[in-house]
Every structure is written in C-alpha cells, then in structure tokens.
Amino acid sequence: MELNWLAFIIGGIAAFMVGWAWYSPMLFGKGWAAGSKVELGSASSMPVFAMVAQLVAVFLLSFVVAITATTDALITAIAAILAASAFVVSSGAFVKKSTYALCVDGGYIILSGVIMIAIHAII
Question: Distance between alpha carbon 18 and the CA centroid of its chain, in Å?
C-alpha cells in the first residue's frame, strides 16, 4: 500500500490556506474572535505556536486521510474528522466560547477533511 504523497501534501496545504481565509475578517474571523474572547491582530502579530500547531494538525489529518485512502476506508477518515471536530468543539465549550465560535472551529475541521478527501479523489 503506497500513500498518495502528492494528495497528502496538497491536502495539508489547501486545508491550512482555507483556514487562513476561514478565520479572516472577510469570512468568520470577527465573529469567531468575539466569541472566543480574543482580538484579531495583524499578520505580524500572529501567535507562532498556534500557527505551528495548526500546521501540524492539518498535516496529521491529511496523513490519516491518505492512509485511509490507500485501504478504501473512507468511513474511518470521516469518523476521524468528526472526532477531531468534536474534540475541538468540546474543548472550546470548556473555555466558554460562543456557539458561533464553536461552529466556526468545528466547521473548519469538517471542511478541511472534505477538502482532503476531495483532493485524494481527484489526484
């Protein structure tokens, strides 16, 4: 079983870039920031640890999708994506994020998974 490395890399990069737009003021960033009790800063004031952790997370999820694609285990990929989303939503609920912010966070993970699965289907 050989991984589709190109789909893995493109899926990770695409999900990260979609996150950049997803959390921007153009889309859901303002409401998410208010609901998360954080201030949106400039690109130069981005929290480095959070960005690195996000990059690691999207590539780990892309790796899970790549592995499941080699074994035709789409349901496993979907379950992993939904589990990751549920973990993020539950941890956000513990710190009392708004429902809007929770939906933005959980929705981003689900969208990322859909993008990764679609890339594997195309490439």
Answer: 8
pLDDT in tens, 57-108: 999 999 999 999 999 899 999 999 999 999 999 999 999 999 999 999 999 9
Q: What is the 3-state secondary structure (H, E, C) of the chain?
A: CCCCHHHHHHHHHHHHHHHHHHCCCCCCHHHHHHHHCCCCCCHHHCCHHHHHHHHHHHHHHHHHHHHHHHCCCHHHHHHHHHHHHHHHHHHHHHCCCCHHHHHHHHHHHHHHHHHHHHHHHHC
Instruction: Tell me the Cα Rg of the chain.
Output: 15
Please state the pTM of the whole predicted model.
0.92
